[in-house]
Prior knowledge:
Layout: H1 5-26, H2 32-42, H3 45-54, H4 65-69, H5 76-94, H6 96-116, H7 124-136, E1 141-148, E2 155-163, E3 166-172, H8 175-196
Antiparallel strand pairs: 1-2, 2-3
Helix pairs in contact: 1-2, 1-5, 1-6, 2-6, 3-5, 5-6, 7-8
Amino acid sequence: MRDNERLEFLGDAVLSLCVSELLWTRLPDAREGDLTRTRAAVVNEGTLASIATALDIGATLRLGRGEARTGGRTKPSLLADALEATLAAVYLDGGLDTVRSLVHRLFTPAIDQALQRRPPELDDKTRLQEILQGRHGLAPRYEVVRAEGPDHRRTWEVEMIADPHLRTRGVGTSKKRAEQEAARDALQKLRERDAAAPDGDAP
Length: 203
């Protein structure tokens, strides 16, 4: 396999499922929005990078010379992606029960901390998802338009698609940052629509 992108895709989904199961069990009375916000406070680049650092995953990465010279083994975005790829590999090798047990062990401390804190501020992707689902029952999707540059200075462009009339793009130094930028732009467009619409007639 040339890179870990396919594993990262699968690992992201596996991790989301396992953490969602944990929150479903621990918060039996929580509404969907509360569950979504808590999951976002747990499944994010910072938490994943911290766990990857504790597991010394950075030492196992195969990097280009430029990325290695510029501290790629400690870069949060790379560590987070590597952890997602690792979880996908565990899932493929041992099945759902095995990776579920691993996720529970690794992420329970982060969940405990999230539950002890005040409700986290919504990130732009979560805020956009809640608005679109609440108004139209839609879930935004994100597609990579292009990725350019060497490993240590790669730039991602991502398109957010919600419906034929709401498509935005974001650029960032990681896919997740580009997605957040696209979501931020979409939120601005929704605010502009709301401001232009007659009272009580927001799209």
